[in-house]
Structures are given as structure tokens and as C-alpha cells.
Design goal:
Layout (H helix, E strand, L loop, with lengths): L2 H7 L10 E7 L8 E6 L2 E7 L5 E4 L14 E3 L2 E3 L6 E2 L5 E3 L8 H5 L7 E4 L2 E6 L14 H5 L3 E10 L3 H6 L5 H7 L2 E11 L2 E12 L2 E12 L3 E7 L3 E12 L2 E10 L5 H27 L15 H8 L16
Antiparallel strand pairs: 1-10, 2-3, 3-4, 5-6, 6-7, 7-8, 9-10, 11-17, 12-13, 13-14, 14-15, 15-16, 16-17
The structure holds FE2/S2 (inorganic) cluster (FES) and fe (ii) ion (FE2).
Length: 330
């Protein structure tokens, strides 16, 4: 069965890839003077780090005679195409053509499409928009981590055969927590939408080897690609999650865990168990995500959680011609 047929059968035909800030690499995966071609959004983005450490991102094909720029190298801050050694700066302008007496001004200005690129807390993000519209909100971050010297504990990643929207919808699907993850529920929760972000605050009872325990989950999602979740129970764990479409039926999921500073050995052990439990939960979800269909008109009942409110907000990330002016998110 081809991927296209598979996607069609699974209800993705009306779910294109949303626009937003998306993780495409970890910072340490792109060292200075290195060029990487990254496959996301059903296309490729060529990313390089100049000698200053600054990141740049452009479309993959050279506007001259079409060589793939992922095969180029970095000279100073510029990317040099392997085929005829044209050099490009981070604005997509030509800075050097070794054999030409002059560079036409329009090539100097810009002739290669660029992508907004930023990094935060060791993660590299690009702004994806199928029409190349400018970012509509600022990249979100987690100021508490630097301000309170939280400690990075673990990183995890998965490539999952599902549409990117499905992964974050899982957090709104309260009824599955009991069935799939064994948590007592359905949990008490609050759900707030604010511009391009949404916040879930969930108080829940968890089954632990030492018996039931209450905990709090405070999750802030900004756009379709970033979320920041603090789990407070006997420990205090912060999880950064990035969901990035590789194509409409495949998603790259990344997690980075931090814990509060100065934890006792006992709390560190509980922290490790908490992270293990979260990883176990996603591993319980994945086989369901990879075989499920996206029901455009699901049969929902009381207790199912704010699935439809979530979808309504998420639909904004598909409004590619929306002339709405850029606004700042949280
Ligand atoms: S194709 Fe890139 S410099 Fe000619
Ligand atoms: Fe789940």
C-alpha cells in the first residue's frame, strides 16, 4: 500500500501540515562550519552554522544550475555551493561568484528563499509556512530553566507514523488515560485557549507502586510544534516537547526533561521513575496512533475532554491565507 493511499484511508486528506515553529535538530547536531540537509514538511531545508556560531536556513536547490546545497560547505558565515562555488549569505543573497566580473544586484539582494531559524535551550527551530509567510508569533521558550538553574535529565525522540495533530490531541483525550495508561480518571482539568497557545491544567490520581497519589500537570502549548509541561507530584519535572511533521503521515517527536535543582537522591530516583513512566505512556500510545484513523466527526460523549475545542483552535494553523496580523504568543 502506498503512503498516499494509507494517508487517505486514515483521514489525513483534509489535514495538511500546519504552519508554526518546529524543531528540526538539536543544537549540538550542527557544529560551526557544518551544513545539514534536514527532511521535514515534505521537503528539505538546508541549515548551516557559520564560523560565528550563527545558524542560517535556506531552500535546498541552488538558484544557479540547481545543485543541492546540502552538498556545499561553509566559508566564514556563507554557504558555498559545491557545483560552481557561488556563495550565499543568510539572507539568501549571493556574496561571491569566483569566475564572474560582477554580481547582478538582484542576486546580491536575495535569490534563494530563506527560513526563519532560531535556537533555544539546545533545540533548533525553523518557522514553516507553506506560503512562506513571516512568523505570526515569537518562538516560545522555558525561562524557568535558566532562571532557576533546572538540570537537564534526559532526552528522547521517536519517529511516529501519524499526523502531527494527533500527538497533541492525545493530551485532550482525557478518557484514554485510564484505558491506556492505567491512571485513575477521568481527571479534573482546566483548558484555556489564548491566541496561538493553549493551556491544560490537570489534577489527577496516579497509580504508583506505593499506592495512589495525586499530582498536577500544567501544560502550555504554543503553536502546533512546541509544548512545555510541568509535572508536580512528589517530584518536580519539566518536559519540553517538540512535534515536527516529516510529511503529513509522519511526525518527529522530541522530549527533553529537566528537574528542579538540588534534589535529594531519593527525589532523583522518583524523578527517574516519573520520566520512565512518561516514556512508557508514549510507548503505549504509539501503536494506537500508528494504526488509528482520524475521525473528522468523532462520536464524543461527556467525559471525553476538550477534543473539539482543541481541533477548533488547531484549525487556525491551517489557515494559510489568513491575513491576520502577527501577534505575540506567551
Ligand atoms: S549550481 Fe550552485 S553554483 Fe552553480
Ligand atoms: Fe497518551
Amino acid at each position: 500500500m502506498t503512503e498516499a493511499i494509507g494517508s487517505r484511508l486514515r483521514g489525513y486528506e483534509d489535514l495538511p501540515m500546519p504552519f508554526g515553529w518546529f524543531a528540526v535538530a538539536m543544537s549540538d547536531e550542527i557544529v560551526p562550519l557544518e551544513v545539514k540537509s534536514l527532511s521535514y514538511f515534505g521537503t528539505e531545508v538546508v541549515v548551516w552554522r557559520g564560523e560565528s556560531g550563527e545558524l542560517h536556513a535556506v531552500d535546498p536547490y541552488c538558484p544557479h544550475l540547481g545543485a543541492h546545497l546540502g552538498g556545499g560547505d561553509v566559508v566564514g558565515e556563507d554557504l558555498r555551493c559545491q557545483f560552481h562555488h557561488w556563495r550565499f549569505n543568510g539572507e539568501g543573497g549571493v556574496t561571491d561568484i569566483p569566475y564572474a566580473k560582477m554580481i547582478p544586484p538582484k542576486l546580491k539582494r536575495s535569490c534563494l528563499a530563506t527560513w526563519p531559524i532560531e535556537e533555544s535551550l539546545g533545540v533548533v527551530y525553523v518557522w514553516y509556512h507553506p506560503r512562506k509567510a513571516a512568523p505570526k508569533w515569537a518562538l516560545a521558550s522555558a525561562p524557568i530553566i535558566a532562571a532557576e538553574h533546572w538540570v537537564k535529565a534526559q532526552e528522547h525522540e521517536w519517529i511516529i507514523k501519524t499526523h502531527v495533530q494527533e500527538i497533541t490531541e492525545n493530551g485532550q483525550d482525557y478518557a484514554h488515560f485510564r484505558a491506556v495508561h492505567g491512571t485513575q480518571g477521568p481527571p479534573a482539568s482546566e483548558f484555556q485557549l489564548d491566541g496561538w497557545s493553549r493551556r491544560n491544567t490537570v489534577e489527577m490520581q496516579m497509580v504508583t507502586p506505593r499506592g495512589p497519589m495525586s499530582g498536577k500537570i500544567d501544560a502550555l502549548a504554543v503553536g502546533p510544534g512546541q509544548s512545555f509541561t510541568r509535572f508536580t507530584d512528589v517530584t518536580d519535572v519539566y518536559m519540553m516537547q517538540e512535534t515536527t511533521p516529516i510529511d503529513s503521515g509522519t511526525t518527529h517527536l522530541r522530549w527533553q526533561f529537566y528537574h528542579a535543582p538540588d534534589m535529594s537522591d531519593g527525589k532523583l530516583r522518583v524523578t527517574a521513575a516519573r520520566i520512565r513512566d512518561l516514556v512508557k505512556q508514549v510507548n503505549q500510545d504509539i501503536p494506537i496512533w500508528e494504526r488509528k484513523r482520524y475521525n473528522h466527526a468523532p462520536m464524543l460523549v461527556d467525559g471525553d475532554g476538550p477534543v473539539l475545542a482543541y481541533r477548533k483552535q488547531y484549525a487556525r494553523f491551517y489557515q494559510f491565507d489568513d491575513p491576520e496580523p502577527a501577534i505575540a504568543a506567551a
